[in-house]
Amino acid sequence: MKNSRGFSITLFLIDFLLLNTAFFMVHYLGQRTFRVSGPHGNIMIAIFVLWVPIFFLAKKHRLEIYRRYQRAVLIYIKSALFLAYGLSFVIIFFSLGAASRFQVFGTCLAWLVFELLALTLFHISFGKRWGFRPIPRMQRMSWKRPISPFFLLSDLLLFVVSFFLVNLLKRGSFRLIPYYPELLILSFGFWIALSFFTRKYDRTNFRSFYFALAGCIKTALLMGAVVSVAIFAFRLFYFSRFQIFSTLSLLLVLEIGLYSLYFLLKFDKNHSEDIESVEDLRRFFGQEALPLKKTTPNGSPSPLPSHMKILMDTCIDNFPGLFEFIRETVDISNLDSAEIALLNCREQTCFDVLQERSFQLVINFQKTNGIRWLNRYFLGIHRKLLNGGYFVGKLETLDQHKKRFFQAYPEYYRELFYIVYFLVHRVMPKLPQTRKVYFAFTKGRSRSISRAEALGRLYFCGFKVLAEREINGSLFFIAQKSKTPSLDKSPTYSPIIRLRRVGWNGQVIQIFKFRTMHPYSEYLQEYIYEQNQLKEGGKIKDDFRVTEWGRLFRKYWLDELPMIYNWLRGDIKLFGVRPLSQHYLSLYDASVQNIRKWIKPGLIPPYYADMPKEFEDIVASEKRYIESYRRHPWRTQWGYLARTLNNILLKGARSE
């Protein structure tokens, strides 16, 4: 239970035990036996099937939710209600009218009581030891929120329209049969009460389409659950399930249409106002200077050239702190105004506005994420720069985008939405089967680009990254034109990658692996080494190029499974030194580089036999293995393999 955000098997088993205790206690009180059969068996299966997703969706497996007593109580209450709602819905949907109301609601209530007792005892007994907050006094909740009359009246009208349209679809007439007027009044009352309970009409929910949609979905789900409970609890099975749930489904569709129209019109209104901000940018690009003075640390004013003031004013108006970042990294004191280009465009044609001459400094204030042909864009900048010239660009990294994404979407839906977004914008561009479809529809707009991929593309196109800094939620980078673009025609981008490694007799071989790093990460080998150096075990420290799932793959060697193909093809043998890149091999002593070429690299390295700590220890370990292998090949192979299996299987050695 030490990991507050990870999965705790202890909490899972405790909650499972409490649920079992509640179910069998209620069953014994009702049936005077612990034997479960007939409808009660169906209820028991439904309880445990529904309990698993409720447990994880409520995040009851995380220790952090128990640090605040009041928060944990609310989560327990919601879990019990969700279980009651889910069971009622299952009973109504599958026509399990023989199910016992005492068994269903009694189990949910007993489970809640047991959980609250366990929580209270745990806080009283171990709260101080675990650093939990004391049990607070319940505070009165404030319900004063501004309500939108337009959406309130529109929603009530749409509910009535939906009810009669479903009746027309089922009966062929708008006329209601007996019991249906009562059903309309009952469901209409439930809808109004639940809409106010979920604060669906609060003006704060209409700051974006997704927040408004979240209120609709939440109310519809809660409405379906409450109606199911009411029908089951009061045995109202003569009401039509098709009428109730179809009305809710149609109402949700109509609400989505209404909100889409509202936000579409709102967007058009805001879009017309954005024209003024574009004109402001054009004014700054027209090199209108402002009477601004720079103050040196000693307090004396230090005047800047007019074109430098324009650059400073432009940077300050767009991104405060950018000018100082540039000035700290690049010597711009000797730059002429004709050597500086300021851009604010996302299209490849933006280079057409530049004259047929070279520049010393190019700045683009638009995000790199919105550019379709990213390599062509960087190469276009490369051609326009003088040798040693500087390019200042802007990027929204994956972490920055995820943070903004979670702020823009409601709490209960953002994780699901982000999974869909990840599959569309991160997975589809990587797969050859879906790549063309993705770019045909999206044109590459606002795609997700990792920090490692953007910097790797810069190195691929002939730049050297000098500095990075986060400014106003975006990552700005300064790159220098330092070399010609790479002639590599196949940078790694797909899930299975081919890496150039030094093999037998110094020949370059293609090693196949599953991708564990972001695309274009191989071009950052020199940069990441200069920034972070090496850590224990010979790996690079804080290597941001490795993805989260890539770390899991590396830990259990799953990324090296495609290397079996290299082994079958004869490029490598089963056991031997690790195949290294040219840059990593250059870190070795010249004598070790030479003897490494005497033997084939292997799938399983001698690292796991000796478990060296430092880089020098790794080099010495490989040197010992090679010298031993040349003297006694078979004995060395089997001896090292036995020690490796012992460390992996018995001592739990894992890759980083």
Q: If you had to describe this structure to a student in words, what would you say it looks like?
A:
The two termini are 24 Å apart. α3 runs antiparallel to α4 (101-126), α6 (180-197) crosses α7 and α22 (615-631) crosses α23 (633-650). The strands form four sheets. A five-stranded mixed beta sheet has the order 3-4-5-7-6, with helices on both faces. It is α/β, with parallel strands linked by helices and 656 residues long. It is built from 23 helices and eleven strands. Helix content is 55%, strand content 10%. It folds into four domains: 9-126, no CATH class; 149-264, no CATH class; 305-479, Rossmann fold, CATH 3.40.50; 496-650, no CATH class. The longest helix has 45 residues, at 241-285. The protein has helices spanning 9-31, 39-57, 69-93, 101-126, 149-171, 180-197, 209-233, 241-285, 306-318, 322-329, 374-384, 398-408, 411-427, 432-442, 451-460, 525-532, 548-555, 563-569, 582-586, 590-596, 607-610, 615-631, 633-650, and strands spanning 294-295, 301-302, 340-343, 359-367, 385-395, 463-471, 474-481, 496-502, 508-514, 573-575, 602-604. The model is unreliable at 1-6, 135-143 and 268-303 (pLDDT under 50). It is globular and about 90 Å long.
